[in-house]
């Protein structure tokens, strides 16, 4: 096996096994710090040894065994090690059993721990991206638009709070589960989005490992709560979005927007499953929540055989419904993109400009303005907006797309919306 093959095997192992290793160590030692550091050390040993020894037949088992040894070594080295060993044994042996019918999955336990309501919402997302998604602190800091040191402190404090508050490492009981699940869904949605459009420079523009893990965990939660409309809605939203993944990045590494995508490359099985979930929720006759409406919007997009067949009136109507539930500036921004297809770019631009104070640091705001200004023939203003969007964007494929559109401003052809890319 060549050096490049070994490096790829290590990369794939990190993507596929990081959460499993961290979850297994958290289960055994009851300490996120120990679990994270031992997992990182195990991967460091793999980088050192696999090129010489070869990739083991079962990389996950090898990494878990190595990480366990590293964790034990750390506990033995530290002061007050007897107390730490006693605490670790207590957590490992005295952890309450799962309630009847609960799904046995270490990563599901881990995400409920990271998303405990005792933690601040932004901390839950950061901790989940680190412990479950395996993102580096610097990648998470870029996603949150904060300094790396600030994010590192935030994650450290969260792990300490979990330990001192003795937050349990388990799936909540049946009576507590409905109240806990909304926070978990919010985190899973953000994890999926990081995979769908990765923000870290030097990383793949699409991180399928993250989006696939978010989908897998959402499926598990749906099995726990099959009648929950928002769980079904989030799963449908993820499936309909992920179905477009094969067509979203060109061979040259540039983002391909919805208008230009080869719809024949979309995953028809995922689309069919997503549409079925949307229809089931409509048939339930219950007022939809945020994820169900977003899934319905994506169902409209994926129902059109050509972008010209898109029912934009229905999209706007769904956004009107969503605004009543979630009057956030990002929802208003996406609604304006759909409005442009019905009422024209001038009306949409006026709506977008009203969001300036709230979205000045958001790259998609400037990208949307650039597209609308371009359609209005205001090339100079469009170029300035593209420049700002490129400056703020973190995804390499998106930057390539925005750069090309800026550099082609002489082309007066109609620009496509960013919504639904």
TrEMBL record:
One of its GO terms (biological process) is DNA-templated transcription initiation. InterPro entries: DUF6596, RNA_pol_sigma-70_dom, RNA_pol_sigma70_r2, RNA_pol_sigma70_r4_t2, RNA_pol_sigma_r2, RNA_pol_sigma_r3/r4-like, TPR-like_helical_dom_sf, WH-like_DNA-bd_sf. Residues 111-162 form the RNA polymerase sigma factor 70 region 4 type domain. Residues 75-101 are annotated as: Disordered. GO terms for molecular function: DNA binding; sigma factor activity. Residues 75-96 have a biased composition (Basic and acidic residues). Residues 20-80 form the RNA polymerase sigma-70 region domain. It holds the Pfam family Sigma70_r4_2. Keywords: Sigma factor, Transcription, Transcription regulation. Residues 180-280 form the DUF6596 domain. It comes from the Bacteria. Gene3D superfamilies: 1.10.1740.10, Tetratricopeptide repeat domain (1.25.40.10), Winged helix-like DNA-binding domain superfamily/Winged helix DNA-binding domain (1.10.10.10). The keyword Manganese does not apply. Belongs to the sigma-70 factor family. ECF subfamily. This is RNA polymerase, sigma subunit, ECF family. The lineage of its organism: Bacteria, Bacillati, Actinomycetota, Actinomycetes, Micromonosporales.
């Amino acid at each position: 096996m060549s050096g490049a093959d070994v490096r790829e095997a290590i990369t794939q192992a990190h993507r596929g096994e990081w959460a499993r290793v961290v979850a297994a160590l958290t289960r055994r030692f009851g300490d996120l710090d120990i679990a994270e550091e031992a997992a990182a050390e195990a991967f460091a040993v793999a980088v050192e040894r696999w090129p010489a020894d070869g990739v083991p037949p079962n990389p996950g088992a090898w990494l878990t065994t190595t990480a366990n040894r590293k964790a034990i070594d750390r506990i033995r080295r530290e002061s007050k090690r007897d107390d730490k060993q006693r605490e670790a044994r207590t957590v490992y042996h005295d952890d309450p059993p799962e309630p009847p019918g609960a799904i046995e999955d270490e990563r599901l336990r881990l995400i409920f721990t990271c998303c405990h309501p005792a933690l601040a919402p932004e901390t839950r997302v950061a901790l989940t991206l680190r412990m479950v998604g395996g993102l580096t602190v610097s990648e998470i800091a870029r996603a949150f638009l904060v300094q790396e040191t600030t994010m590192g402190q935030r994650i450290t404090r969260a792990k300490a709070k979990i330990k001192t508050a003795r937050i349990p490492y388990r799936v909540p009981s049946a009576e507590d589960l409905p109240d806990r699940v909304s926070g978990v869904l919010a985190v899973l949605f953000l994890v999926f989005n990081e995979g769908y459009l990765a923000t870290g420079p030097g990383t793949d523009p699409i991180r399928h490992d993250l989006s696939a893990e978010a989908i897998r965990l959402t499926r598990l939660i749906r099995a726990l709560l099959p009648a929950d409309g928002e769980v079904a809605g989030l799963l449908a939203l993820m499936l309909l979005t992920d179905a477009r993944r094969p067509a979203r990045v060109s061979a040259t590494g540039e983002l391909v927007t919805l208008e230009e995508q080869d719809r024949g490359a979309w995953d028809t099985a995922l689309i069919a499953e997503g549409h079925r979930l949307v229809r089931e929720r409509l048939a339930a006759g219950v007022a939809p929540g945020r994820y169900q409406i977003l899934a319905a919007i994506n169902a409209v997009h994926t129902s059109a055989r050509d972008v010209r067949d898109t029912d934009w009136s229905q999209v706007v109507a769904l956004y009107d419904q969503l605004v009543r539930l979630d009057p956030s500036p990002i929802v208003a921004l996406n609604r304006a993109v759909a409005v442009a297809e019905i009422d024209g770019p001038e009306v949409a631009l006026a709506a977008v400009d009203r969001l300036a104070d709230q979205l000045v640091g958001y790259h998609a705001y400037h990208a949307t303005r650039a597209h609308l200004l371009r359609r209005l023939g205001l090339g100079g203003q469009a170029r300035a907006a593209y420049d700002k969007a490129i400056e703020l964007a973190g995804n390499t494929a998106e930057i390539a797309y925005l750069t090309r559109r800026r550099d082609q401003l002489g082309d007066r052809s109609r620009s496509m919306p960013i919504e639904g890319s």
